[in-house]
Structures are given as C-alpha cells and as structure tokens.
Amino acid sequence: MRIAIVGAGGWGTALSVLLAWRGHEVYLWQREKDLAEEARSIRENRVFLPGVLIPERVKISWDMADAVLDARMWVFAVPSQYMRSVARKVREISEGRGKVVVSVAKGIEEGSLKRMSEVLLEELPGATPETLAVLSGPSHAEEVGRGMPTSVVVASKSQQTARAVQEAFFCPRFRVYTSDDVVGVELGGALKNVIAIAVGICDGLGLGDNARGALMARGLAEITRLGVAMGAQPQTFAGLSGVGDLIATCISRHSRNRYVGEQIGRGQKLEEVLGKMVMVAEGVRTTSAVRELAGRYGVEMPIAEKVYQVLFEGCDPKRAVEELMLRQPRPEVWGWA
Questions:
Q1: Would you tell me how many other CB atoms lie within 10 Å of the CB of residue 31?
Q2: Angstrom distance (rounded) from CA 289 to CA 114
Q3: Structural domain of 252
C-alpha cells in the first residue's frame, strides 16, 4: 500500500521506518526543503530522530502533492497546534475522498478545544468519521524507530477502517489493537501529557516514588472524569491509550513533557526550558485547553489546575504540592463511577 506520512518529526519519521519494514510504499513529507534533502542524502533525521536509519523504501519529499496525491492512506503526524494549517495545505491538493485518514498527534487545539480528529474532519471535506482513525498508546519514537516492542490502539467509528489501519501497521515489533472509542483514545493521549508535567515537577523537587505514584493514579482519575463527561468510555482509560501511555510518558527519559516539568521543579522558568528544546512538548499548550474543557464540562481537575498555575501564573511548585495535599478529604472513587 502507498502511505503518506504528513510530518517528519521524530514520530512521523519513526512511523515511516516502521511502515517501510512492513513492506509499504512510504512517502514522508518534510516541510523544510533543506532538512528533506539532508535526510534523503544521509538516510537519517539528525534533528528529530538521530541514530535511526531511514530505509531507502521511504521516499522523503518537501513537495506535498508528491507525497499525498496517490497515497491510499494519510497519516497526520504534526504537532496539534499545526494540524489545522497543515490539513488545509493538504486540502489544496485533495479533499481526502476515498482516503483512510489517520491522526497520530496527541494534543488539543487551543481556542477551539477541538480534538485532532475533529480538526481533520473540518478541514478535509472528503473525510468522514467512517474513514478516519486515531492511533495512540505508549509509543516513544526513539524506541519505535529502533524496532523495540510496542503496543498501541487504533480507534475509529468504522470497524472496517480500524481493521485496515491495524493491518497496515501490525508487525512483530508493533502490535495494534482496535477500539470504537475515538473520543477516549484521543483524550487519553492528549491529557496524559499534562500529568507527565506534574510528575516531572515532582521529580524535579525530589519528592520520591510515593508522590510520583499518587500523581499518576489521581491524574488518571482526572483524565477519566473529563473523558467520561465528554462521551468517552471509562474502560478505555484502563487500556493502552490511557494508563499505558500515562505510565510510559510519566517515567520515561524520552518524555519531553516530563522533562519540562522536571526542569521547572528544579527552578527553571517555562520560557527557558522551551527555548532549549528542539521538539514540541504537547502538554504545555494542552494544559490551557484542558483547564478550559474542565470548566466547560464542570469537571474538577485539581492536578491539571495546579500545573496550569505553575506554568502560567507563577505559582511556586512546592506551594502547589502543599495545596494539593491539603485539599478536603473525600472518597477515592467519585464523579464518574
């Protein structure tokens, strides 16, 4: 199958390598011409995924039409805040009719508070809920690109579409499950980044494993509460796109969101941390969107609220932890069960 991957960051590059191993004809779209030419020449994405060989089977192009026009499947692997503008660029070439459209981004659009599948459906007139899928789970690009065992879930309103994506990606090193809970799978992938920032702050403060475990468990409760309020199935958050991705993102040395939190916990300012990073930490902008969503749906999310206050309102991280610990005692399970 001919597959176009729109976005040549670390995740898009890793998926291009995976799909080439799988035997597909892969086109990888890179926005910057000079980076595309370099990657084509040396068969490596030295900026976003250094040390991973890109097979010759992957055709790297900065020409959007060349990449997407004849592909049967489009995989959108761009940061969430750029998804709409990139989708519009694709729309200038094709509306997406007859294509399977897959979002692998993990974020929520600021302002509109839209999930990525919603953005793609708005911007690609030929796409429908039945031809669109989202893929998520514990899947760091650094490990997928090196062929390390990974399991993910793909969700679609159409069982046929979910199975088509499963078949396209499934291989001994990349196990793919299916789901019909598009909302839950997307929200799990986006919201866990906010909790990973909280865990990073905890680690930066040196608060230990007990605090880390508590943040992850209570963070999952917050994610589930908001997800259920937005129409997701609660059991989805006990799966790969929920607790699986949450654990991986909160403990991994590859996690950009955890890194941001850790540096802030050590006393750096957000602007300083982001200024040193090459890749995007989706959780920073998602934190603002989650705060708005929590207000819209009337869902209490104290950890996410404290992350927002630390990132954007100058709240001292130690004070934020104290205020979380001193909240009114209550039952462990409430609000969504």
A1: 16
A2: 9
A3: 184-325
**267 and 214 in one domain?**
yes
pTM higher than 0.85, yes or no? yes
Q: Could you identify the residue written with the tokens 């997307």?
A: 186
pLDDT tens, residue by residue, 75-120: 999 999 999 999 999 999 999 999 999 999 999 999 999 999 999 9
DSSP 242: I
Clarify whether 157 is annotated catalytic: no
In a domain, 335, yes or no: no
What does the angle CA 213 – CA 315 – CA 313 come to, to the nearest 5 degrees? 120
CATH value at residue 301 = 1.10.1040.10
Q: Using alpha carbons, select from 279, 81, 73, 86 the residue that is nearest to residue 161.
A: 73
Q: Which two three-digit tokens encode residue 195?
A: 């909790």
Q: Which of 114, 192, 269, 318 is catalytic?
A: 192
Within a 10 A sphere around the Cβ of 69, how many other Cβ atoms? 14
176 and 247 part of one domain: no
Dihedral over Cα of 248, 250, 254, 256: its sign? positive
**Burial class for 149, CB neighbours closer than 10 Å (0-12, 13-18, 19+):** exposed
pLDDT tens track for 236-260: 999 999 999 999 999 998 999 999 9
Tally of domains in the chain: 2
How many whole angstroms separate alpha carbon 155 and alpha carbon 114?
17
